[in-house]
Amino acid sequence: MVEKVIPIRIAEGAGLVPSIPTALLPTSNLTQDTRGRPLRDLRISVTDRCNFRCTYCMPKEIFDQNYPYLSHQELLSFEEITRLSTIFATTGIEKIRLTGGEPLLRKNLEVLIAMLAKIRTPSGKQLDLTLTTNGSILRKKAAALKAAGLHRITVSLDGLDDAIFKKMNDVDFPVTDVLDGILAAQDVGFTDIKVNMVVKKGCNEHQILAMAKHFKGSGIILRFIEFMDVGSSNGWDMAQVIPSKDVIAQINTVFPLEPIEANYAGEVAQRWRYQDGSGEIGVISSVTQTFCHECTRARISTDGQMYLCLFANSGFDFKTLLRSGKSDLEIANAIMSTWSQRTDNYSEMRGSHPEEKISNGRKVEMSYIGG
Predict the structure, then answer these.
(1) Averaged over 33-45, what is the pLDDT?
(2) Which among 361, 355, 352, 349 is positioned nearest to 312, based on CA atoms?
(3) 156-182, pLDDT tens digit by residue?
(4) Euclidean distance between the first and final Cα of the chain, in Å?
(5) Is the pLDDT of residue 215 over 60?
(6) What per-residue confidence (pLDDT) applies to 14?
(7) What is the largest CA-CA distance in the chain?
(8) Of the candidates 351, 339, 368, 241, which has an alpha carbon nearest to the alpha carbon of residue 292?
(9) Are 271 and 190 in contact (CB under 8 A)?
(10) pLDDT tens, 252-309?
(11) Are 199 and 224 in contact (CB under 8 A)?
């Protein structure tokens, strides 16, 4: 049984206050943190709700019918998300990923996507606009998402065996409906679709080869993610982690692989391609092969807190800045100032002591901050 914990929620005005310099600086896309890491990627959680109860993210024992989800007025509005994203674009952001919870549960999400699709960087470049979903209602929404201007989709799928998949999502949702959603996304013209599989020892590791075989040659990129200690409620244990190198070795014995270069600096997935030319896979090794040193991601929670790390325990309250009459330049300076003081390297700390639980206070839940 997972120990029940009090939900993290930050009352308006109660988060860490972002620093706004007295003398405002011009916006710059060259802002770096204390380790020289630039700000390039923004992940925005648009809802803290989800229709799955995956044991590694929103275990049913905690996220039950009495769980106090954020009220509508606590959420950032579409207009606030768009304004904040536009400001972020002036400070170096090149990609936005919409997350949740399950982002497709946010009513009229395609309206927000259409608004974000109009944003341009100072050089006139369009942002790379992406979304991560569990795929449960993707068939229903795929056409609208494409028409609104969404560029790419990532689907979370932890196995093809229906019994295992239902056990992991813990709401008896059939895998066939997720696969149908992926097909629907392909049918409306989405390319470069990715499927993410979280591998947890004793749960779904026997699905590795089945997943590789299913998506090999499909044009869909399958990525295997090590089970991570995100949040404080998923009962993480290092003994449940299957190292990415073991995943690659297992697939390579059946489908020979060879490594390929990253698409861009800071890409979290290590890329491998099938030697017969039938596609590629990736592994995300946050536990055994940390990538803190090149992390370029900031995260905005459902209620407008800026987090500097997936494993953070506190955020900076940008919702209050948006709602208190601050100018775009003041908010941009707050972003640059906050990022320039960033020191986060939790995964490196954990990697230095893999058998210990590294404590930096209670970590924010994935459903609140996004993946």
Answers:
(1) 96
(2) 361
(3) 999 999 998 898 889 999 999 999 999
(4) 24
(5) yes
(6) 62
(7) 61
(8) 351
(9) no
(10) 999 999 999 988 776 778 999 999 999 999 998 877 666 688 899 999 999 999 999 8
(11) yes
Q: What is the pTM of this model?
A: 0.90
Q: pLDDT per residue over 227-255, tens digit each?
A: 765 545 555 566 678 889 999 999 999 99
Q: Is the pLDDT of residue 5 over 90?
A: no
Judge whether 294 and 264 are in contact, CB under 8 Å. no
Confidence of residue 311 (pLDDT cuts 50, 70, 90): confident
Contact predicate 208/254, CB 8 Å: no
The CB-based long-range contact list for 263-270 (8 Å cut-off, 24+ gap) reads 265/294, 265/296, 266/37, 266/40, 266/41, 266/291, 266/294, 266/295, 266/296, 268/295, 269/223, 270/244
Determine contact, residues 96/130, Cβ cutoff 8 Å: yes
Tell whether the model's pLDDT for residue 77 goes beyond 90: yes
Residue 268 is predicted with a pLDDT of: 78
CB-side neighbour CA atoms (13 Å) of 186: 15
The residues near 278 (Cβ < 8 Å, ≥ 6 apart) are 216, 217
In the numeric block, the tokens 């768009």 are attached to: 82
